[in-house]
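pasting proline--tRNA ligase for the record, 150 residues
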Amino acid sequence: LEKEKDHVEGFAPEVAWVTKSGESDLEVPLAIRPTSETVMYPVFAKWIRSHRDLPLKLNQWCNVVRWEFKHPTPFIRTREFLWQEGHTAHANKKSADDEVITILKLYARIYEELLACPVIQGVKSEKEKFAGGLYTTTVEAFIPTTGKGV
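structre below
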Protein backbone atom coordinates (compact mmCIF):
# COMPACT_ATOMS: atom_id res chain seq x y z
CA LEU A 1 0.00 0.00 0.00
CA GLU A 2 2.93 2.33 0.71
CA LYS A 3 4.24 1.77 -2.83
CA GLU A 4 0.81 2.69 -4.21
CA LYS A 5 0.08 5.57 -1.80
CA ASP A 6 -0.26 8.24 -4.50
CA HIS A 7 -2.65 6.10 -6.52
CA VAL A 8 -4.77 4.86 -3.61
CA GLU A 9 -4.99 8.23 -1.88
CA GLY A 10 -8.55 8.64 -3.14
CA PHE A 11 -9.40 5.20 -1.77
CA ALA A 12 -7.91 5.87 1.70
CA PRO A 13 -11.27 6.31 3.49
CA GLU A 14 -12.48 3.03 1.93
CA VAL A 15 -9.47 0.84 2.84
CA ALA A 16 -10.36 -2.11 5.08
CA TRP A 17 -7.74 -2.89 7.73
CA VAL A 18 -7.18 -6.29 9.36
CA THR A 19 -6.09 -5.73 12.96
CA LYS A 20 -6.69 -9.16 14.52
CA SER A 21 -6.00 -12.79 13.73
CA GLY A 22 -8.34 -14.92 15.79
CA GLU A 23 -7.99 -13.58 19.32
CA SER A 24 -4.54 -12.03 18.73
CA ASP A 25 -3.95 -8.41 17.81
CA LEU A 26 -1.65 -8.02 14.82
CA GLU A 27 1.58 -6.15 15.44
CA VAL A 28 1.22 -4.39 12.10
CA PRO A 29 -2.28 -3.86 10.65
CA LEU A 30 -2.77 -5.29 7.15
CA ALA A 31 -4.52 -3.27 4.45
CA ILE A 32 -6.78 -5.13 2.04
CA ARG A 33 -6.05 -3.80 -1.43
CA PRO A 34 -8.91 -1.54 -2.63
CA THR A 35 -7.75 -1.54 -6.26
CA SER A 36 -5.14 -3.19 -8.47
CA GLU A 37 -4.16 -0.82 -11.27
CA THR A 38 -0.68 -0.12 -9.95
CA VAL A 39 0.21 -3.82 -9.89
CA MET A 40 -0.19 -4.10 -13.66
CA TYR A 41 1.89 -1.31 -15.07
CA PRO A 42 5.41 -2.16 -13.82
CA VAL A 43 4.94 -5.49 -15.62
CA PHE A 44 3.89 -3.71 -18.82
CA ALA A 45 7.35 -2.11 -18.93
CA LYS A 46 8.89 -5.60 -19.03
CA TRP A 47 6.50 -7.02 -21.61
CA ILE A 48 6.45 -4.11 -24.05
CA ARG A 49 9.82 -3.62 -25.74
CA SER A 50 8.74 -2.01 -29.01
CA HIS A 51 5.72 -0.92 -31.03
CA ARG A 52 5.52 -4.52 -32.30
CA ASP A 53 4.32 -5.59 -28.84
CA LEU A 54 1.29 -3.31 -29.11
CA PRO A 55 -1.54 -3.41 -28.49
CA LEU A 56 -1.22 -5.36 -25.26
CA LYS A 57 -4.61 -6.30 -23.82
CA LEU A 58 -5.14 -7.95 -20.44
CA ASN A 59 -8.30 -8.85 -18.58
CA GLN A 60 -8.25 -9.25 -14.80
CA TRP A 61 -10.80 -10.60 -12.35
CA CYS A 62 -10.14 -10.10 -8.65
CA ASN A 63 -11.92 -9.58 -5.37
CA VAL A 64 -11.86 -6.04 -4.03
CA VAL A 65 -12.86 -4.79 -0.58
CA ARG A 66 -13.98 -1.21 -0.04
CA TRP A 67 -15.63 0.26 3.05
CA GLU A 68 -17.27 2.95 0.93
CA PHE A 69 -20.80 3.20 2.25
CA LYS A 70 -22.88 2.57 5.34
CA HIS A 71 -25.59 0.40 3.81
CA PRO A 72 -24.48 -2.10 1.15
CA THR A 73 -27.05 -3.59 -1.23
CA PRO A 74 -27.10 -7.40 -0.83
CA PHE A 75 -26.31 -9.33 -4.03
CA ILE A 76 -25.69 -6.09 -5.94
CA ARG A 77 -22.94 -4.11 -4.19
CA THR A 78 -21.48 -5.34 -0.94
CA ARG A 79 -18.20 -4.35 0.66
CA GLU A 80 -16.39 -7.23 -1.03
CA PHE A 81 -17.12 -7.71 -4.70
CA LEU A 82 -15.77 -9.39 -7.79
CA TRP A 83 -14.11 -6.75 -9.93
CA GLN A 84 -13.36 -7.10 -13.62
CA GLU A 85 -11.01 -4.71 -15.29
CA GLY A 86 -9.24 -4.41 -18.60
CA HIS A 87 -5.71 -3.09 -18.88
CA THR A 88 -4.37 -2.20 -22.30
CA ALA A 89 -1.45 -0.42 -23.89
CA HIS A 90 -1.70 1.07 -27.38
CA ALA A 91 0.52 2.85 -29.88
CA ASN A 92 -1.64 5.98 -29.75
CA LYS A 93 -4.55 7.58 -27.89
CA LYS A 94 -7.05 7.02 -30.70
CA SER A 95 -6.43 3.27 -30.63
CA ALA A 96 -6.85 3.25 -26.83
CA ASP A 97 -10.04 5.36 -27.00
CA ASP A 98 -11.48 3.08 -29.70
CA GLU A 99 -10.83 0.04 -27.49
CA VAL A 100 -12.60 1.70 -24.55
CA ILE A 101 -15.71 2.42 -26.66
CA THR A 102 -15.73 -1.10 -28.13
CA ILE A 103 -15.59 -2.72 -24.67
CA LEU A 104 -18.17 -0.29 -23.23
CA LYS A 105 -20.59 -1.20 -26.02
CA LEU A 106 -19.97 -4.93 -25.43
CA TYR A 107 -20.86 -4.55 -21.75
CA ALA A 108 -24.02 -2.65 -22.62
CA ARG A 109 -25.03 -5.40 -25.07
CA ILE A 110 -24.50 -8.11 -22.44
CA TYR A 111 -26.67 -6.29 -19.91
CA GLU A 112 -29.39 -5.33 -22.35
CA GLU A 113 -29.55 -8.30 -24.73
CA LEU A 114 -28.65 -11.22 -22.45
CA LEU A 115 -29.82 -9.98 -19.06
CA ALA A 116 -32.71 -7.74 -20.23
CA CYS A 117 -31.40 -4.97 -17.98
CA PRO A 118 -31.40 -1.48 -19.51
CA VAL A 119 -28.24 0.53 -18.85
CA ILE A 120 -26.81 3.96 -19.43
CA GLN A 121 -23.32 4.24 -20.93
CA GLY A 122 -21.26 7.21 -19.94
CA VAL A 123 -18.17 8.87 -18.55
CA LYS A 124 -17.64 9.32 -14.81
CA SER A 125 -17.24 12.82 -13.39
CA GLU A 126 -13.77 14.17 -12.55
CA LYS A 127 -14.43 13.36 -8.88
CA GLU A 128 -15.41 9.75 -9.69
CA LYS A 129 -12.69 8.87 -12.21
CA PHE A 130 -9.85 6.57 -11.25
CA ALA A 131 -6.64 8.23 -10.07
CA GLY A 132 -4.17 8.68 -12.89
CA GLY A 133 -6.78 8.16 -15.59
CA LEU A 134 -7.68 10.60 -18.33
CA TYR A 135 -11.29 9.48 -17.94
CA THR A 136 -13.31 6.56 -16.57
CA THR A 137 -16.23 5.07 -18.47
CA THR A 138 -19.19 3.30 -16.95
CA VAL A 139 -22.24 1.21 -17.72
CA GLU A 140 -24.86 1.80 -15.02
CA ALA A 141 -28.26 0.36 -14.27
CA PHE A 142 -30.98 1.99 -12.19
CA ILE A 143 -32.42 0.15 -9.19
CA PRO A 144 -36.03 1.37 -8.90
CA THR A 145 -36.55 0.16 -5.33
CA THR A 146 -33.62 2.18 -4.00
CA GLY A 147 -33.53 5.08 -6.42
CA LYS A 148 -29.83 4.44 -6.99
CA GLY A 149 -27.65 3.48 -9.91
CA VAL A 150 -25.18 0.63 -9.86
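Helices lie at 5-8, 37-47, 93-114.
The mean pLDDT is 85.
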